[in-house]
Write a structure and sequence with these properties.
A 5-stranded mixed β-sheet has the order 2-8-7-6-5, with helices on both faces. Strands 9-12-11 form a 3-stranded antiparallel β-sheet. The protein contains 16 helices and 14 strands. The N and C termini lie far apart (about 55 Å).
Length: about 450
């Protein structure tokens, strides 16, 4: 008999979680104004809100924490992180930041100004927020297949080269400070970008003299999918694929709380020393001195170790197979999900799941609340709430995809937890026809409203 698959790690420590009652959850979600970001962590049984900073660090990462050098300038931890970034991604220059959105803040302060256009593949919430905060415009050039959850395309994160070329030809290069490639593409369902598409985007960018910026939060998962799905890469190691990917990036921002498996940390990688020097000013203003940038030495050590662990095939196979396990269970139960499986989460198609809830009543958020009430599982909305309002008209934006993201932390839950999630969604699906109303906004911020929004049941 062929041996079954088993995870490439064993568990050394556990954290107790408590299963609450339906009555408790009804009170808690009402007190939270139907926004799961407002829930306390001890009110959640299985937390699939995000994979950002929620993974379990390894014994080697914890060991590195004890070796952290907390010198204000020039700490050995900075040089350990510098060497890891150079070794894995090939960047000669980098700035540490406390997380990914901080990296965006520093970089966009350096490069983006009012009236600019920033094309890319389905920019994520903080990326779009930083662009629009600067009175610039994010232009989505993702392939059309990404917006049909029932089409199975191996690289739904790809940029539509025709759309991108239209933006580049229709506008002066001075208005386009960068092209952003998000690898993997979170907003389209954790979907990867092919190496072929990466090369083509880079070639088009060079033709127009525009730098390419990788949003690198889940770069290792992207490399895994290239290895598994793209012809000619099956024999290559993950790190070989990563090095090839970053040949086509001029700059990279990184939320290391994802594929470097740390609780806090990020960075910006540069190839141009002049751009690095310009960005250093903003890093000192917003984050800290350029050799710590808002991070402690111990966190830099753990991050450096995590970059190596996160680019090991055995680790990635275990991680993505668990995502695939939940995806397969939901498919088997008739739950509509984004096809094919993505890297860090399973994305449920809320429009198909709750066909009677109007778009204006936030369909995916309605499903998020129902799942919490059913089983104490916290997912997150990737839909009209997150899409925010148009910065000019102030009307709600209704994206093509209305998704509930079930984001699986790294090395944290077992497949038994995934079974709870699957059965809870099946129970809701069995009564979906009775769910006909959603929520309306009582209070919202002017930007990135989904984090703090207050809702009421219609």
């Amino acid at each position: 008999m062929e041996l079954p698959f088993a995870e490439s790690y064993k568990i050394k420590m556990v954290e107790v979680i408590r299963r609450s009652t339906r009555a408790e959850r009804e009170k808690w979600i009402q007190d939270a104004r139907f926004n799961v970001f407002n829930l306390r962590s001890d009110q959640v049984f299985i937390d699939l809100l995000t994979d950002s900073g929620t993974g379990a660090m390894s014994d080697r990462q914890w060991s590195e924490m004890m070796l952290g050098d907390e010198s204000y300038a020039g700490s050995s931890s900075y040089y350990k992180m510098k060497e890891a970034i150079r070794d894995i991604m090939g960047f000669e220059y980098f700035l540490p930041t406390h997380q990914g959105r901080a990296a965006e803040n520093v970089l966009f302060s350096t490069m983006v100004k009012k009236g600019d256009l920033v094309p890319g593949n389905a920019h994520f919430d903080t990326t779009k927020g930083h662009i629009e905060f600067r009175r610039a415009e994010a232009i989505d050039c993702t392939i059309d297949e990404a917006f049909d959850t029932q089409i199975s395309h191996p690289f739904k994160g790809n940029v539509d080269l025709g759309k991108l070329e239209h933006v580049l030809k229709s506008n002066p290069a001075e208005r386009i400070p960068m092209i952003i490639l998000t690898v993997t593409c979170n907003t389209s369902g954790g979907q990867p970008v092919s190496m072929e598409n990466i090369k083509a985007v880079h070639s088009l960018a060079k033709k127009h003299g525009i730098p390419v910026v990788f949003d690198s939060a889940r770069f290792a998962e992207n490399a895994y999918f290239i290895k598994m799905r793209e012809k000619g890469y099956g024999h290559r190691t993950i790190r070989e694929i990563v090095r090839e990917m970053y040949q086509y990036a001029d700059v990279a921002t990184m939320s290391s709380k994802k594929d470097a498996i740390v609780n806090m940390g990020g960075f910006i990688g540069f190839k141009d020393p002049e751009l690095f020097r310009r960005a250093s000013l903003y890093n000192i203003m917003f984050e800290g001195f350029i050799t710590y940038g808002g991070m402690s030495g111990r966190d830099m050590n753990a991050l450096a170790q995590g970059l190596y662990e996160g680019t090991e095939f055995d680790y990635l196979e275990s991680r993505i197979r668990q995502v695939e396990y939940l995806w397969n269970r939901l498919n088997d139960l008739g739950i509509p999900v984004q096809q094919p499986v993505g890297g860090h989460a399973v994305f449920v198609d809320a429009k198909r799941f709750l066909p009677f809830v109007p778009a204006s009543q936030f369909i995916a958020q309605t499903l998020v609340v129902e799942l919490y009430l059913e089983a104490g599982v916290r997912g997150v909305e990737i839909g009209a709430l997150m899409a925010d309002r148009d910065p000019v008209t102030r009307e709600n934006r209704y994206p093509s995809l209305e998704l509930m993201r079930l984001t699986i932390p790294r090395r944290v839950y077992t497949n038994n937890h995934m079974e709870v999630v699957a059965v809870a969604l099946k129970n809701i699906h069995d009564r979906k026809d009775s769910i006909t109303t959603g929520y309306q906004i009582k209070h919202e911020a002017s930007l990135l409203r989904h984090f703090t929004v207050e809702l009421e049941k219609i």
